[in-house]
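Exercise 3.2. Students should predict the tertiary structure of the chain below and write it as structure tokens, then compare their answer with the key that follows.

Predict this chain's 3D structure.
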Amino acid sequence: MSQPSLFIFGSERGGTTLFSALLSSHPQVYVLNDSFVYLAFVEAWAEAKGMAGAQTGSGLRWKLRDQLRRMPRTRACLYRLRATFAGGYKPEIPELDGLPEPSAILEPELIAAYFARLRKRYEMFHPDDKANSFLREYLQGLHPEKYSTGKGVKLRPLLDGVFTDLLPADQTAKPVLGEKTPRHLYCAPWLQHLYPEAKGITLLRNPLANVAGLHARMNKDLSGAIAKYLSFFGAQFEFLYDESRSLLVRYEDLVYETEDCLARVADYLGLGESFDGNMGSSTRGDYIGGAIDPERDKRRMEYFSGEERERVLNECSDVIARHYPDLERFL
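Answer key:
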């Protein structure tokens, strides 16, 4: 059974997919993409405990939202409706207090709810969406019957087992196995408790480019895009930006100083050689393309103008002051 020895943390639309593909170009590294292995358990546990704010996994409302999310055009309407009628976007940050210990024996009902959560996540794709074809492979990799033996199943072996089941068979023996799901950053304090031996890399992207990507995805809800970006810098996640506890990598350095940046990552992971940057075998190749594209990053930086640009810079000024004092050189 395999287990993650590396977690990639970063904002949605922050370049984590590209970064993971670059890491997986190394013969000793493989990073599992957007598996939701850990967040799905947190959600299932919260629902089982009836916690306030937990997203319920049954009922007409949930099923309707599932169907809408599978249709790209309709999915954008959800952001518009939420911005208009629900007081704007609010980040769905899960409650982590009281989660089971790694050695806790889980109830069969909780395990069943967990696999139901994973299945719902992986079924949230449009049949013609090639960028999400990897989710079909995840669906095929789910084997809930392995954990329904009637014997006590502990939390950590369950999560390690699912992680292993989702890995491509030819990748399981690699010494560095990582996981990347942007929303797992919200679970980072719990993941650190579960896997104290695992290393973490936090990928940052400057707010002009990152908020632009979120803005486009969220049906041009600027307030929501800024709120979502800043949610990844909450006080409870401060340790992820402490260079004594995690390796910080800026997306811009990855794009414009690729060789030096990847050499620093290789040294942090204890690899004998750096990365070759070949992303041809990436599971998300249709989404990220086959190579780093600095021009695409420049277009993102120029996405906003006028008052919108000033608003992003002002509301994200703390992030800029701490992590991007040299932002002007990327403009």
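Discussion points: The CA atoms of residues 83 and 89 lie 6 Å apart. The chain has one domain: 6-330.
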